[in-house]
Structures are given as structure tokens and as C-alpha cells.
Amino acid sequence: MKSLLPIIRLLLTAEPKSMVRGAALSVIVLLMGAALLGLSGWFITATGIAGLAGIGIAFDVFRPSAGVRFLALGRTAARYGERLLTHDATLRALAALRVSLLRRQVGLDARALVRLRGEAELTRIISDVDALDGVILRLFLPGLAALVTHLIVFLMLGWLAGWAVASAVLVGYVPFAAFVFWRLARQSVVPSGQSESQAQALRRGIIDMIRDRQALILRARIAKREDDMLSLDGSSRKMMRALDLSDRNAAAALSILTAAVTGLALMVGAALVARGAINPATGAIGVFVALALAEALPPLARGVADYGKMTGAAERIGHAPKTMPETTAKSHAKLDAPVLTIDTPNLTLRLDVGEAAALTGPSGGGKTSLLMQVTGMAASDGILIFGTRPDELSESALREIVTMVPQRSALIAGSIRENLSLSGGTGDEEMWQALAAVALDGVLRARGGLETQLGEGGTGLSGGQARRLTLARALLRKPKLLLLDEPTEGLDDATATLVLSGIRKASPDAAILATLHRSVDHPVFDISKKLNISR
Amino acid sequence: MTRPQQQDTKSSRRLANERIIVPVAHQLRVAGALSVASGLIWPAQAGALAWAISGWVMGEMNRTNIAALFFVLGGLLSAHLKRAAGAYLFDAADQTIARERAALISREARARAGISSAEIAALAVQKLPLLQPWITRYHVAMMRVSILPVVLLAVTFWFSWAAGLVLLVTGPLIPVFMALVGMAAEEASRRQMVEVGTMNAMLMDRLSAMLDIRLLGAIDRASAEFEERAEALRVKTMAVLRVAFLSSTVLELFSAIGVAMIAVFVGFTLLGEITFGSWETPLGLGEGLFLLLIAPEFFQSFRDLAAAWHDRAAGLSVMAELEELDAVERVAFLGAARATAPLSGPISLELCGAAVAYSERILPLPNFKLNAGESVALVGPSGAGKSTTLEAIAGLVPLALGHITVCGETLDEDKADAWRARIALIPQKPHFSDQRLRHWLDPDADEADLWGALTLAEADRIVARLPDGLDTHLGETGGGVSGGEARRLMVARAVLSGRELILADEPTADLDPETAALVIASLKRLKDAGHSLIVATHDPAVFGAMDATVKVKP
């Protein structure tokens, strides 16, 4: 329950006006439904009595029959309004929640970001958020509306038909329905939560299986993986079965409860009528209202059955990932200072406008970590960009200055143009210039130009072509400091030379720092440094 | 809508029906019968109530207890019948979803379509369950609507032709209106389904590229784009809901008007202000109350059907996606990828005039021969087809022309599994599953084997340095270790597989010269131990170490 509270607050406060109106309307719907049936029952019984007594002419038929029509139409309109308002408000809040969950990834530090697993985050943003739509629509609002309606009905019925009938309806419904719901919640909390988490595991598993397919085939393990997926599906469906059983039991219990309360209202009404405390028409009201109130229960049952799923999802969403501390003192870049100075035990380096440096050192020696420090995604002692520590610059100011192409840079599905557009809005001509700088223009012109479509994760290009596309994408940022992590990886020597000099030529004013293990003596670089290992 | 399209939808609906409904028709029939039986109890219950209350007016109070008992027993029976019907319905839906999901999973495992993995996962996990309401509600609602309203109408006519007429006129308007709404509903839910897929695919893609997005300063652009998708999904979901709400409102309106008309009619008749509408015996209080009680049930079956109509629309749009996926062109690998006895005899391989159909063009593969213990380097410019050659040798892509001979036999459907049992492939792009490193390397190997292979691949120190060692979960593309380290882990994995022919795609692509030399040395060690090697590479140091060089021309 504790984990649901922030979600309830979030959903209620996103569109508070719509929610309040929706909640009011949902009470009105139930009340009008009860009033409609109660009034109709009273009306017919009363007219029956009047007819028998032969005083039909004196009976005021118009007000009750107008009331019946008003309640019938009003209830319909109220229900439509209630549904529209509450659903729209909830969906809006959930859409916003999805975006904020995605944005939460922004604050991750470099280490967490490179280890981020897309499929895990995906299930959080899609399935967990989906699971929460019932928190208000199927749990909070129906519960609130049912309770409020019962209280109002109790008062009205007590006033109209006597407190005995009113108490019979209230005491018959509320504690027993609460018991049925409590039992349902208890029985369903485990299967509901489990079936959801297993469904999510299945979703992640399918994505992983498809993405790892080649290796699985070669190791003759795909059939095994398939069986794993099917058994996961099997256990998830087993949970669904348990859930369905408690669901059906609760539904049956509720409909038996309705019959029992109606029977009780009939008997209490009869006793009052027999004592002459009320007339038969008033006595009928209790019976009809008891029947009408059955409507309040089934919507709540659905929500209660999903309780386990909702709390599980809320807990997963509530687990905020560890983010880097927000910098408090934002400094400004000093444009007269050198673009980059590094003064650490492992390396001293000064890079000015238009200079290019190559950094070498064995794998695992900390080259990538150093670049990540320069990008401000890890603590950056001893590093100054334009005289300022990177982690003291604001995110946007830092990204304006520095662009980095990481070692395993990713592409996205869509056209070449969409991939290049990740670096910001640029025209076609600039895109072609950047592609020419990395010697990719010829290949793409032969295929489909900027409209060439790439598959998931940029499939459709060879390793070297993909590498060059990520380099072109970085060039379009026009950075003052360009960091390249193994830019020639996967390129043959001739292409590597072409690409490196292309990059240099395309950004004459940029300072470039590249980690390399080959072509160290490449003429493109003014400075060559070796990173010392210290542990 | 033009005629051929209409026929299209009709025949696709028929197909959907055959695929989803026909196999569970028996369960649906039983459930429908139980549900109808439960519905037939209500008129009896209503009769009991009306009989008791009319007794109050006539001073016959002793009716009440009998009626109350009868009413409660009726409720008990009806609840149990409904509960039993639900069990059949759950089975029917469960069986269907299990079948479709299994088919989907095994097909994606066997023959990949070029569709986002996240989209497929969304279809299997998020959308397939939408078949459930269609299966469990539509057919039962159909069966109920064809029996219950007729019975209730007949009963109403029995007491009063005017009341019957009210129902007769307002009732059938509902299906007419429903059919109109149904078309809009189907279109709306189809759009919603598509949007769900789009959002899934896009989100997965962006999450995989999160580091780049951050480094490119594209966080705001990416989240704005995603916000657009999330908002589009909301709009499309609301469109579906709006149609559903509107149709149920209109139906409720018909029902409310019908019930109100009956109430007023009965009231006026009882007062004696209306004298027509009944047969010879005038309508009494009991009959009047009875008519009032059964009128809502008359409309309820129509309203249930209308609600189920939306479920059917959602189900059909899921079916449309399934059928679309059925029709997608797929590249199947050769064989079944089941564990089989390896091909016998010494390793040998020959490519002869082989070519692969690759994105609408024919990509010829080089001709070459390899015998046991030999090593070959495939060299050529980027995009010439080096990786494709390796894939074809591994039986991952079928040949369009020519043939590949392995161990003296043609590489085909029957031989592929046995052939693959003798080879290992080190791909260019590392991919780490979401599992512990030790399971990723080899789930069956013991500690000593693991460390032995890691040492051979110069990867032991990498693992030793990881905080969780062999129990580390790495990022999808090896996040957590450097590019060179990921490569060495993959070499270790190939070593652990114990296969004789090792295919390596750019094995030194991001290794520094020292480590590359060590990896090359370890490849040579494998060769000395009797392994054969085929390596696609740019690296002169690598092809210098191989016995032969094969040029791959674009």
C-alpha cells in the first residue's frame, strides 16, 4: 500500500480538476442508479395502491414520472462524463510518468549508463506504467464512490423508508463486501504480482533471445532458450489461472451477497409494513435500492484483483536509480583558456584550438574512463575544459562544447537522416558534408541517400560503415572539443587514414582527442601521448 | 471503403475466426449454455419479488419469507452457473493465448523477420492477452442475446402487448447502432495497436542508444520525441475509449428510455389512466413490478454484446498484426539448431560459386577451400561481404546460388546442425545476454575450465578486475568492460565451446597491438592444437599469421 500512495498522489494531482469532477460524477452515477430503481419501484407500488383504492385521479403522477426520466437520462450523461474525465486524466498522468522515467536515465553516471539494459528499462516504462492505470480507475475511485454512495444511501433510505431497512442494506453490504474484497486481495496479491513479473521476464527474454539469436543458433541452444521462454509463459499463465479462480469466486460471492441483501431488505421491509410503520410503496424502495447498489461492486473487484500487480509495478517504478549528484555551483567556460588541460598522475596534456592529440595505452588502462571524465560523466579531478572542471559546467553548456563518440556508439532504427538528426536540426547539405568527411557519401548515394533505412540498432550497415556514421553524427555537432574513442576500430588502414584526415579537415577549429592503438604516428595528430598505468 | 477492401476484411475476419474461435468452439458453447441458464433464473427471481411486494398491498405478508428464500436460492444458483461458465471461458482463452504465443516465439527464434525485437515482445506479451476478452465475452454475449431477450420479450408480451411493443421497438435499434459503431471501433483499436508497437520499438532503440544520446546533448530532443509517441498513444487510446464510452452511453440511453417508458406505462395503467395495452385481464401490481424488474435485463444482453463488440474489435486488430507478421519475408537459418551429433570426419570446407541474396541484390561469395588444421584470412574492403561469407559458412543465411561443401557433404537443412556442432563464431559486435558472465561463457563449464579458457584468451585479468568476477552482469553490448576486453571475452567463449573450426569476424578490431598479438598467438595456439580458423580481418598482423589469404571483392 505504501508504494501505491505516491502513485495515487501523482495520478490525482496531474489533472486535479478532472479527477474531482470525475469522482463526483462517479458517486452521482451510483446514486442516480439507486434512486432510479427505488423511485420506479415506489412509483409502481404506489400507483398500484392508488389504483386499488380508486383514488387514481388524485395521485400526482407527473412529478415521479418526470423524476424517473430525469434520473434515467442524468445517470447516462453522468456516466459518460465520469469515464471520459477520469480516463483522460489518468492517461495524461501516465504519459507524463513514462517521459519522466525515461528522463531519469539522464542523471545516470557513465558506469551505469554503459551497463544500462534496454529491455529492463523498457518493461519498466511500458508494462509497469500500464499496470498502474487501474490504481485510480479501478481501485481508488470505485472504492471511494461505493463507500460514499453507501453512506448517502443509508441516510436517504433511513429518512424515507426507516432506519431498519437502511441499516439492513448498509450492514448487509459494507462489511460483507469488504470481507469478500479482503479475501480476494489476499488470494490474488501473489498470483497477480507474479504473473506480471513473469510476463515482464518473458518480454525481456524474448527481446534478449532475438538479439542474441545468432550466438544461440551456433551453440545449438536456441531450442533450449525457446523452451525456457515457453516454461516462463507456462508459469505466468498458471498464475493467471489462480488469479482467474479467485476472481470468479469473488464475483460469485458478490452476486450471492446482492441476492441475500435484497432478500433481507424484502423481509425487513415486510416486517415494517406489517407493523404499519411504512406503507408498502415505501417498503419497496429498500428492495429496489438494494438491487441497484449491486452495480457498485464489480468494478471494484477488478481493481482489487489487480492489487498485487499494481503494488509490484509501483515498487519497481519507485526504485529510483542512483544518479550523479547535481552540481550546485555552475561555472562558466572561459574562452581564453586552453580548450582542454589534463593534469593527472597518469597524464599531462594541454590541447588548444585546432590541435589534435592521439592517446595510447593498453586495453583496460583507463583511456575510456578518462574520456568519460572529460565529458563530465564521472568525477573529473585534474581536468579543465576552457579553465573549468567539466562537472561544474551545466549539462547543456558542456554538451555544446564537448562531443564524444564512444567506443561502441549506437545507431537507431530509421533513416540515415534520422540518425544524423540526433545531433540536432541540420540541413541536407551539412549532412552530406559530414558524410563526405568520413568517406561514407559514396556508399550511401549508391544505396538510398539520406533516406536509406536502418534496422533495429542501426543494422543494415557493416561494422565499419556504422562506425563512420557515428563519426559523421558527432561532426554535425560542431564541437569545440571532439573526443573519439578508438575511431578507427573496424576500419582498414586506407579508410582509417581517409576518415581521420576527413574529420580533421571538416572541423579545423576543434580540438580533437582520440584514443588509438594503431596509426599512432599518423600525420593527422599533432601530439601523441601514452597513458601511464597506475593502480 | 471500397468493395475489394470490404471483402478483404470479411475474409480476414473469417480467417481470424477459424484460427481463434473454431478450435475452442466446444468450450464456448458449453459456457454459453451455462450463462444462458443463469440468465433465465432472473425472471423467476423477479417474479418472486413482485409476488411478495404485491402481497404487502393485499395484506398477504406470509408470502415474503418464501419469496425471499426463493430469491436468495435463485441468486445462489445463478452465481454458480456463471462461475462454472467462467471456468470454461478461461480455459478457452488460455489455450488460445498459449498456442499463439508459442508459435510466435518459436518462429522468431527460427526465422527472424526484420521487425524490432521490442515490437515482437510487445505483441507476444502485451497484445496477445487482448484476445482473451474477445474469446471470453463475444460468443457468450452472442448466445445470450439470441435467447434471453426473446424469452423476456415473450414474457412481457404475455402480460402486456404495449410494454412488449416498447421493448420490441427500442431493443433492435441497439444492434443497428452497434454495427455502425463497430466499424469505427475496429479502426480505432487497430491504430492503437500500431501505436503500441511503434512506441515499444522506439523506446527500446532510444534506451539502447542512451549513452550516445546523452553525449550528443540530445536528451531533450529524444525525450521530446518520446513524449510525442507517449502522447500519440494516449490520444489513440482515448479514441478507442471514446468510441466505447459513446456506444455504451447510447445503449444505456436506449435502455434507460425503455425502462422509464415501461415504468410510466405500468404506473398509469395501474392508476387506470391508461386502459389499453393489456389483454383481457388488466395489469395488476405484481405483474407491473415484474415487468419493471425484467425490462433492464432485456437491454442488458444487448449492452453486453455491444461491450463485447469492442473486445472483438480489439481482438481482430491483434489478429491483423499477427497475420501481417505471418506474411513478412523471413530469412531462415539452415537446420533446427538442436543439439545433434557432430558431422564425422576431419574438418573440410569448400565454397563453390556460392552467392547470397542480400537486400535485393546477389552477393557473390569467394571460392576457396579449407582443410583440417588450416587457417584462412578473408580480406577485403568494408562492406565487401566478409561477414556474410562467415554467416553463410555457419549456415545462418541460405545460399541463392552455388553450394558449400562441409566435411565432404553439401551444407543443407539436414547437415547444418551437425556441421555447426563443429564450429564456433566470434561476431564483430559483442552481445551479452542478461545473465551472469559465467553462464554466458559456458553454463556447463566448471571453474577450472573457465579460468583456463580466459587465460588462453588473455581475459583472466579482465574478469579478476570486475567487482563481481564471473558473476558480473554486463551491459548488452559489453558495457562495463572496454571494447578490447569484450572481444577477448568472446574469444574465451569460443575456446570454451570446444569446436574445431573457429570463425572470427575482425577478432582484433579494437585491440591494441600488444593484446592483438597475444590474441593472434592464442589463435595460433588453437591452430597448433588442431583447430581450423577462418578470420575476416583488416589487420595485416592477423592475415600474416594465417596460412592463406582469400580476397573478398564487393
TrEMBL record, chain A:
Residues 323-533 form the ABC transporter domain. It is a multi-pass membrane protein. One of its GO terms (molecular function) is ATP hydrolysis activity. The keyword Transmembrane helix applies. PROSITE patterns: ABC_TM1F, ABC_TRANSPORTER_1, ABC_TRANSPORTER_2. Signal peptide: none annotated. It is found in: Cell membrane. The keyword Kinase does not apply. Pfam families: ABC_tran. Keywords: ATP-binding, Membrane, Nucleotide-binding, Transmembrane, Transmembrane helix. The chain crosses the membrane at residues 20-37, 43-62, 135-157, 163-182, 250-274, 280-301. Gene3D superfamilies: ABC transporter type 1, transmembrane domain, P-loop containing nucleotide triphosphate hydrolases. Residues 22-309 form the ABC transmembrane type-1 domain. GO terms for cellular component: plasma membrane. InterPro entries: AAA+_ATPase (IPR003593), ABC1_TM_dom (IPR011527), ABC1_TM_sf (IPR036640), ABC_transporter-like_ATP-bd (IPR003439), ABC_transporter-like_CS (IPR017871), P-loop_NTPase (IPR027417), Type_1_exporter (IPR039421). This is ATP-binding cassette, subfamily C, CydC. It comes from Litoreibacter ascidiaceicola. The lineage of its organism: Bacteria, Pseudomonadati, Pseudomonadota, Alphaproteobacteria, Rhodobacterales.
From TrEMBL, chain B:
It is found in: Cell membrane. This is ATP-binding cassette, subfamily C, CydD. One of its GO terms (molecular function) is ATP binding. Residues 30-314 form the ABC transmembrane type-1 domain. It comes from the Bacteria. It comes from Litoreibacter ascidiaceicola. SMART domains: AAA. The keyword DNA-binding does not apply. InterPro entries: AAA+_ATPase, ABC1_TM_dom, ABC1_TM_sf, ABC_transporter-like_ATP-bd, ABC_transporter-like_CS, P-loop_NTPase, Type_1_exporter. Keywords: ATP-binding, Membrane, Nucleotide-binding, Transmembrane, Transmembrane helix. The keyword Nucleus does not apply. The chain crosses the membrane at residues 20-44, 64-81, 141-159, 165-185, 243-271. Residues 347-554 form the ABC transporter domain. SUPFAM superfamilies: ABC transporter transmembrane region (SSF90123), P-loop containing nucleoside triphosphate hydrolases (SSF52540). It is a multi-pass membrane protein. GO terms for cellular component: plasma membrane. Gene3D superfamilies: ABC transporter type 1, transmembrane domain (1.20.1560.10), P-loop containing nucleotide triphosphate hydrolases (3.40.50.300). Its main location: membrane.
